[in-house]
Design a protein that fits this description.
Blueprint (H helix, E strand, L loop, with lengths): L2 H17 L14 H7 L1 E2 L8 E4 L2 E3 L2 E3 L2 E6 L7 E5 L16 H7 L8 E6 L7 H7 L3 H25 L4 E6 L1 H12 L5 E5 L5 H6 L9 H4 L2 H8 L2 H5 L9 E3 L7 H4 L9 E3 L3 H5 L2 H15 L6
Parallel strand pairs: 6-7, 6-8, 8-9, 10-11
Antiparallel strand pairs: 1-3, 2-5, 3-4, 5-7
Helix pairs in contact: 2-5, 3-13, 5-6
Length: about 300
Amino acid sequence: MNKHIFLDRLTAFVGSWIAGNKKFFAKSIESPTLQEQIACIELSIPSIDTEGIFDVNAKTPAGKLDPAFCVAQWKGNDYPTIIFHHGNNERPFDFKKGAKNTFWQIFINTPEKLDVNLIVVRAPFHNCTLKEYQNSMVELGNFAAMIATSAKINEELIMQIRKISLKPIITSGISLGGWVTNLHRAVYNTSTAYAPLMAGTYLGELFLKSKYRKMVSGIAHHNPETIRKVLNFNRVFENKNTTNVFPLLARYDQFIEYDLQRKSYNGYPLNTIETGHITGAINSNVLRKHVIHVLQSFDKESNI
């Protein structure tokens, strides 16, 4: 067993122990599908004209939620935009050394400054403690609403930026954020390009087949088709035939299983890194280069 596999499996074991009886979907597996969730969500975002953190009020099938987004860098209308979605249980607005924040590590904590607009979306249930987050994730409907709401915010951001700028917009995200990235593409496909990092379209399989299943309740394991119906969106994704998806997967990933999730990307240029999920997530230089490469492909005049 190599170190990449070992670290992923250790993380799953520790996560399962910490969760105890608060494992994913332990209370309820009732939920609209991701697409149905998006169709029901009502929200609006503030105008983007300056840097800062902006709260969003969202009405969802899971109730009123409190997502937000941060304009970390706004260069102006004549610059391309990267909209990024964080990973599970991250704190995307915590811009300091040691913070659990892949957005900061990839785009901010680097001497390589980018001439782009940088926006990061904070998913619902990520403005609270780990215990509070776990208490919410015992219901599948809350988890699905979290993913769907972030995808909806992405669409609202794109629509607003399109009104003031003709420059490319790249939607990207890691792990949880990668699922959001792909879901937005499956439902809307309005971003110039998509760069999902360590995610796919078979989201249900993450909880049913991968090592992540250790953190999932018995009720979910005993009702696999319900989980698949709510969370898998591979067929909707496949119906979009635009060549604007540039995925990155980790070969030894024990959560986003390589051989399974790469089927999401048949016909698209897949970038494979020789890491696991944990070791891939901390490889900021490789992740940054991948997203920048995607942006450069669509913005030939850029100085990036």
